[in-house]
Every structure is written in structure tokens, then in C-alpha cells.
Amino acid sequence: MATMRREFLALPFLVLVLLHSAHGQQLVIKPGVDVTATATTNASPINQAPRKDLVINVSPELSVSYGGTRSRIDGRLKVDNLHYSRDSQLDRTLPSGELILHSDLVDQWGGLEASVETRQIASPLDQSAIPNSYTTTKALISPFIEHDFDANTKLKAQFEKSIIKSSEVTQKQAPVPDLHASQYSARLERQPTPIGASLEWTAKDSEAATTGLLPSKYTYKENAVRAGATYALNDQLHAGLILGRESIRQEAEQQSDTIRGITLDWRPNERAALNSRIERRFFGTGWKVDWNHRRLLFNWGFTSERTASTYASSVGRAVPVTNDGQPASLDPAFSLAASLRQTFQGHMVFVGQRQSVTLASGMDKVEPLPLGPNSLAIGAATQQRYVEALFNRRLTPLTSLNTSLRWTRSSVDSTGALVQPTFAQTGQTRTILWRGDINTKLSQQATATFGLRHQNATGSQQYGNDESAMFVSLGYHY
Predict the structure, then answer these.
(1) Tens of pLDDT along 162-174?
(2) How far is residue 349 CA from its own chain's centroid?
(3) CA 139 to CA 74: how far, in whole Å?
(4) Residue 418, SS3?
(5) pLDDT, tens digit (0-9, with 9 covering 90-100), for 98-120
(6) Are 242 and 223 in contact (CB under 8 A)?
(7) Whose CA is closest to 115, among 157, 155, 161?
(8) pTM of the shown model
């Protein structure tokens, strides 16, 4: 662990060395500011009586990019200053910043990706009048190798380490666990001509350090080796077999199993593609299916996956974002250990000369992943389904109309699960969110937005999300 921390402490020095060695450097600095005024019927914290308020958010930001022929660094610093005119909450100042590096160290062989991100987010765990918040910092370093030996033989490898640390800004808050995740993968593949082969190694290592429960650390380790053979039935259809071995360890529980699977890749034309893999693994049947079909005015597709996952690895790269474009808080029902996750996402997009319509739906199901009959179920079982429709129309060359409608049903079941007392909850909610806005470009740098939104939440757990609001936003970005 100390070695990992030293790597992240050395990241800023490494960034400077890489950029100093780049040729043709270019520095771009773009300051900006957004001012948003929101008149809402419910600005109260969660689980408190609704209170009307006028919320003013002044958000100055500074974006910087600097790079050369092989290396590039992008940075952003932003501060959200929230003022509640009727004192439904205390005013907040929520800073955030990020630094992202991409470098191709060796041409046609590989390079390095790294990032450091910190942000202060409102606490979803303590709903007192104190403006509680957490400072969350994520650091990631990921060297990679990508090389084509010839037109049909490819090597790809990536080694990724990430740390997510959270500290409480105010007192009387539930501590958020520190999360550590490592992911390693290497794959050597020969395309079928008409027979192909592949050799793949993957490893995952996640750790969550917490307080209030014994043991104080939860670890999950997974190693797998797969060998595959592929046959090209024709130019469009490739089928293959997978045979491998995996080893899994969660706390004191350990299990090894044989992997058996099939692959099917189909490309009927240049606009359609299907990639699929189905395997028999230690938790049952796992799969990953991806279909996409694109046409001139219409495209549709879906993805579905069922696999073992950890919260630390799932948020190592992505930052959840709310409908208003703000970073989302940590999920109060997240699992400390590994989970069995099943997802489905489908979409249809219709595109016209001046308008577009998007229809989307999906499901995300997560449940604890015990390895044996005596292992503990750590974390809650959650399920979320959604249906969403979005419409966009360009009214003039500078003005556009956007509207969306989203229906979500979520359920959490912590019965019998070992979770932090603060995170424990059981119930269902149904949320309907409608939003519409008109956006216009006032000049090359300035934009204005006027919009309405309405949100209604019902269920056995009331989260205080019933709201109607009107908002006006002005932005100026160089």
C-alpha cells in the first residue's frame, strides 16, 4: 500500500517530466463563470419538510490544457457557491478540480494514463441543519501497451491502480470507507484467417477500509487465465470457444473454478456489429453482449452484462453525475465487498434535419456475492429500472429546445446483509422527472438557458424529492 501511495505522490513530477520532453507544446487557458438562479418548491435537505427557496449558484471555473506531440494534460478547477435566499439550508461552497494526463511514451507501443480528482460533495448520510459535506479524492495511474505485430496479430495490456479517499469536512458524520482497486489485463490475439487464437490474463484486487464493523477491511481478489480459439464461418460471422481457470478470494473464503464459454461476433455490414461472450463461471452464467446498428437517420442498440464487480473498481474512473450536471453523492447503499451485477441498456435514436428523439431504457441489478454457504452477505441488494425519452429541436441557428422525461423505480434490500448501520435501508421508490429548457447562444462566448423541471417521488421510503422548479442560467466561457 505504501508503494501505491508513493506512485501517486510522484504523479505531478512525472507529468512535468513528460510535458517538458514534448515538442511543439501548446498552452490553452480558458476561464469561465456560470450563474444559475433556481426558484424551487423544495430546497430542504433529504427527509425534511419541503421549503420554498431561491437558490443562486455562482460557479467560476478555470480550464487548462497543455501538450505536445505525444503527451497532453488537461486540468479544471471549479467552485460552486450556493446561496439559499430563504435559509432553507446554510450556504455552501463546494470546490472541485481534476488533472488528467495521457502520454504515448513509445510510438505504436504504449504509454501512460493518469489522473487526480478531488471534489467536495454534500453528505447524503447526515440530514441535520449543519451543511455536512465530504472531500473525496480519487487518484489513478494506468500504464498501457498497444501494439500491432501485423494486420492480424495484436497485443494489448493495461495495468491500473486507483485510490478513493474521503474525509469528513464537518463533525458527526458517518465515515466513508477508503477504497483501493487494482485491475490488470493482457491479451494477445490472432484474428481468424480462417482460424484464430487468443491468450488472456486478467486480475482484480479491491479493498475497502471501514470502521464500526469487524473485520475493519474487506478484500476481494480475482485472477483468471483464458485461452480461446476462433473460426471464421465467413467474412461476417466469427465463432469461438473459451477455456480457462479462475481463482477468487473474498476475506477467508477462497474458490477456484474452470471457465468454459463461447464467443460470437457478427458484422453483417459496415453499419452493424454484434460482439458477444457467454461463460460458465464460479457464480453461474456470466455474459457480455453488445449490439449496435447505425443508419443515416436512425440507430439503435443495446448492451447487457452479468459479472462479479466491486464498488471500488466501478467508480475508479467515472464520476456519477446528476441530471443538473452536478457530481452525485456516494450511494448510501453501496457494497463494501464484491457483488454480482447484471445490467441492461438499450436505446433508439431518430435524427432529422432540425430535431432528434432518443428513447432509452435500462436495468441495473446488484446483489451480494458470497462464495460459500457460510460466507457473509456484505452489502445490500439493489435494483433500478428506468425508461427515458429525450427530444431536441433547433429552433434557430443559435437557439435550441430540449425536453426529457425519465421514469425510475429503485429498490434496496438490506435484510440479512452486513452493512454499515448508516447505510442500512430497505424499501422502494418510484421517481418521475420532467425537464425542459431553451438554450440560446448570445455570443461566441456567452450562453443563456431558461427552463422548468418537476420531480415526484413515491414509495415506502420518502426521500423528499417532490419538487417543481424554474431556473435561469447565464454562462460566459472564453
Answers:
(1) 888 877 655 555 5
(2) 22
(3) 15
(4) strand
(5) 999 999 988 889 999 999 998 88
(6) no
(7) 161
(8) 0.79
